[in-house]
Design a protein that fits this description.
alpha/beta; 5-stranded mixed β-sheet; about 160 residues; globular; 4 helices; Rossmann fold
């Protein structure tokens, strides 16, 4: 399962949707034998995102990130467990939880969830301005990130 995350009307926050769309186009145009791969774009997190991952062996999540390790448009690849869990040790919301906590709960309840979750993230400045356009550095990273997603499909543990 490949999931582009974010909000497509909030500029760079919607980059996951752009990349997921490009990956789908590349799979179709290049006639890649990836029949068992589903691609979706979602504006969800926590419990709702976890529910979309039920039944899959692997998942690739694509999203904007703001960690300031590199300039805007830098593309990173992580395994989900490498990322900090912002809700660890406290409840971060009375309405939802972090994806890491939701996955733990789902596994405890016996749900079939991916053993491997790869995160492809693009360094972005999230400013919540209503626009469907990406900033130039983030837009330039879309093809790079799409190639990284395709590479991750072939080699899930590559870092």
């Amino acid at each position: 399962m490949i999931v582009g995350l974010g909000n497509p009307i909030l500029g760079d926050d919607g980059v996951g949707w752009h990349i997921a769309n490009l990956v789908g186009q590349k799979i179709q145009a290049e006639s890649l034998d990836l029949e068992q791969v589903d691609i979706d774009s979602l504006s969800l997190g926590g419990l709702s995102l976890m529910e979309h991952l039920v039944g899959y062996d692997r998942a690739i999540l694509i999203d904007a990130i703001h960690i300031e390790r590199g300039p805007l448009g830098s593309v990173y690849r992580f395994m989900l467990e490498e990322l900090p869990d912002p809700g660890a040790g406290h409840t971060s919301s009375v309405h939802d939880t972090t994806l890491q906590t939701a996955l733990k709960m789902g596994r405890t309840l016996g749900m079939k969830l991916p053993d491997q979750i790869t995160v492809i993230a693009i360094e972005a400045h999230i400013d919540y301005t209503f626009t469907e356009s990406l900033s130039p550095p983030v837009a330039a990273a879309v093809p790079v990130a799409a190639e990284m997603v395709l590479e991750a499909l072939g080699n899930p543990r590559q870092t």
